[in-house]
Design brief:
This protein has 15 helices and 15 strands. By secondary structure, the protein is an alpha/beta fold. The strands form four sheets. It has a seven-stranded mixed β-sheet with strand order 4-10-9-8-7-5-6, sandwiched between helices. α7 runs parallel beside α8 (about 195-200) and α13 (about 295-315) packs parallel to α15 (about 380-399). The longest helix has 21 residues, at about 380-399. The chain is globular and about 60 Å long.
Length: about 400
């Protein structure tokens, strides 16, 4: 079979299995009422949890950053692309985790994917006997980072602390690294970080926490999962993304200063990549001010209120809302085709909610992934819940 024929056959198979992904085009900024493919919609699919992606204060800071630093960085950080704005941002991010990671420094990456790949490859380069212990529901960027690191990987069941304890006890590795999301991106629940950290301290292992969906949202000051749980340890390695709740772009890794220095030497996704525009780093400083300030606190409070509004409004019979207290509110439908039909029905009503299918989630657990923003109106959230209830009843009548 010719290559193109094989490719088209595989795409047709994805279509038949209701697994083919498609893109929609937004004609608006990242807001909760965008125009999508020419239609006004209510969006419940963005990770802009605090509603900062279109905040005029951050936009002004970005414009100021362009005026001061131009539009590009010019090279990798280790050549000539490390600008004063990058340095200031890293200092500020290190301060965000200083209460939780002793002698912390931070390293700014262009994306969260690059940060995870970089930190895992960097740690793998430390020793010939590195072993990784990975949570079952970790994000794809962590999984790919482990594959690229080419080190032994042990997968423990979702939030199964006992199984992890057994694995760590049986390991003879010189360097042990436990890797977990803090907020699981498709389930919305929290990892048992205090128990995981206690295990790591007992077994002399590092704990890498991917706080992509917790940074800015969790904790009294928005400092993330470590603040939420009140953790402090030199066994912690923290990754936070800056394109979700922070509303701009990029990510960072924060850890003991010696580990950050090592990543500067060995994290290939950092060493061999052109640095992000310094104007973005300048804009992020404004975002961090908002997150830590009274407006950030008010936005987090509104977000929690909206989570309660949705939970109370959903009256499901066969479908299942997963137990989540975060902005990620999944509704498990089960069958791929049924989830796709539900997402289309919602879209026809003006609600943009994605259907998540395998391989992103396990087979038989296709779902609607509802994400909330502090900018959502409570009445709109209540109407979304009513619409989901009606669509479930309709599918039930057709069954």
């Amino acid at each position: 079979m010719k290559p193109l024929e094989s490719l088209r056959r595989r795409l047709a198979q994805l279509e038949e299995q209701d697994l083919r992904r498609v893109r929609r085009t937004s004609d608006s900024p990242c807001i909760v009422q965008p125009v999508v493919d020419g239609r006004p919609m209510l969006a419940f699919c963005s990770n802009d949890y605090l509603g900062l992606a279109n905040d005029p204060r951050i936009a002004r800071a970005l414009q100021e950053g362009v005026d001061r630093f131009g539009t590009g960085s010019g090279a990798s950080h280790l050549i000539s692309g490390h600008h004063r704005a990058h340095a200031r941002l890293e200092e500020r991010l290190a301060a965000f985790v200083a209460d939780h990671v002793p002698d912390a420094q931070a390293l700014y990456f262009s994306t969260g994917y690059m940060a995870n790949v970089g930190v895992l490859a960097g740690i793998a380069a430390l020793d010939d006997r590195v072993e990784v212990f990975s949570e079952q529901l970790n994000h794809a960027s962590l999984i790919d980072g482990m594959r690229l690191a080419r080190v032994p990987v042990n997968v423990y069941g979702h939030c199964d602390v006992g199984a992890l304890d057994d694995m760590l006890s049986a390991s003879a590795a010189n360097i042990k690294l436990v890797v977990t999301d803090s907020v699981f991106s498709m389930d919305g629940d929290l990892a048992p970080l205090p128990e995981l950290l206690a295990l790591c301290e007992r077994h002399d292992a590092w704990l890498l926490v991917d706080d992509a969906h917790g940074f800015g949202v969790l904790g009294e000051r928005g400092h993330g999962a470590l603040e939420h749980f009140g953790l402090r340890s030199d066994h912690l390695i923290y990754m936070g993304t800056l394109g979700k709740a922070a509303g701009v772009a990029g990510a960072f890794v924060a850890a003991d200063a010696s580990l950050i220095d090592w990543l500067v030497q060995r994290a290939r996704s950092y060493v061999f990549s052109t640095a992000s525009p310094p104007a973005l780093a300048h804009a992020l400083l404004a975002s961090l001010d908002i997150i830590e300030g009274p407006d950030g606190a008010a936005r987090r409070e509104r977000l929690q209120s909206l989570v309660s509004t949705l939970a109370q409004g959903l009256q499901l019979r066969r479908w299942r809302r997963l137990d989540s207290s975060t902005a990620i509110q999944p509704v498990v439908v089960g069958d791929n085709a049924h989830a796709m039909a539900a997402a289309k029905a919602l879209y026809d009503l003006g609600y943009w909610v994605p259907a998540i299918r395998p391989p992103t989630v396990p087979a038989g657990t296709a779902r609607l992934r509802v994400t909330l923003s502090a900018d959502h109106d409570p009445a709109d959230v209540a109407r979304l819940a009513e619409a989901v209830n009606r669509i479930e009843r309709h599918q039930e009548d057709l069954a």
